Amino acid sequence: MSLKVYMDGKLVDKDKAMVSVFDHGFLYGDGVFEGIRSYNCLVFKLREHIERLYESAHSIMIKVELTQGQMVNAVINTLKKNKLKDAYIRLIVSRGVGDLGLDPRKCKKSSVIIITDKIVLYPEQLYENGMKIITVPTVRNLTEALNPKIKSLNYLNNIMAKIEAVNSGYEEAIMLNSLGYVAECTGDNIFFIKKGKLYTPSQSMGILRGITRDVVLELAKKQKIFVNEESVTRHEIFNADEVFLTGTAAEIIPVVSVDGRLIGSGKPGKITHLLMREFKKVTQKEGTRYKI
Ligand code: PMP
Hints:
Blueprint: E1 4-7, E2 10-13, H1 24-28, E3 31-39, E4 42-43, H2 46-59, H3 68-81, E5 87-94, E6 111-117, H4 124-129, E7 131-135, H5 156-167, E8 173-176, E9 182-185, E10 189-194, E11 197-201, H6 211-222, E12 227-230, H7 234-238, E13 242-247, E14 251-258, E15 261-262, H8 270-285, E16 288-289
Parallel strand pairs: 7-8, 7-14, 11-12
Antiparallel strand pairs: 1-2, 1-6, 3-4, 3-5, 4-16, 5-6, 8-9, 10-11, 10-13, 13-14, 14-15
């Protein structure tokens, strides 16, 4: 059976799941999206992802044609139809079909697409040995220009940074904000540990408020680890005992080198390992359950 894609209420064969060239999501990146995961028939933090999607849509004045409850059902039904136990779920809301002008009023109806598929992970060896990352020249979008809290279909800011990372032989990169403070990575949030305390750039640094980031902050508090959201410079990162990144796809991934500076002992650290274990536990027991 071929994979089915949810498109505005219909489940369409993967090969036939096409959007119009006049869709403003395609023409202008005018839309919003989410990346979600399910683990053994449990969708992790589904409500939180859907809430963030609707907040992004509200901010750019897209009316989503489904209620949040209907969106939950649509995600679950698509997963069931595709018989996926462990999945990566991509929710997309685009402005819809208009004409060649960018005026959003031309798009009469927004469009909802749900793609569920197997997930592609970073190689296991990166989790064991840690990742090496660099800082790239492309600055994270200015909050005043395009707030990084909006998870919009226009990801060129991050793609430019990713290109710079890849050109230099790295998989991930730190993006600074316009003031030179550490913001986040191209598709992940960043944390560091110093003397047993956990730090991460605050939301005011111009970042996407990662759902995994929120989970990790909660897990750390439960473990009685002191957490601090503040302004972070590269100096603090270079001199950290441990560094790791968080994201729905990456989960928690240790970082062992930043801009050629070895982090701590150059191996994934103890607190990172503890949080990785705790994270695995919550993904195995919490979530929106479905049966296939
Ligand atoms: N920052 C950016 C720029 C991202 O694209 C992502 C991935 N969606 C994240 C952080 C991590 O967010 P989350 O934990 O919600 O996946």
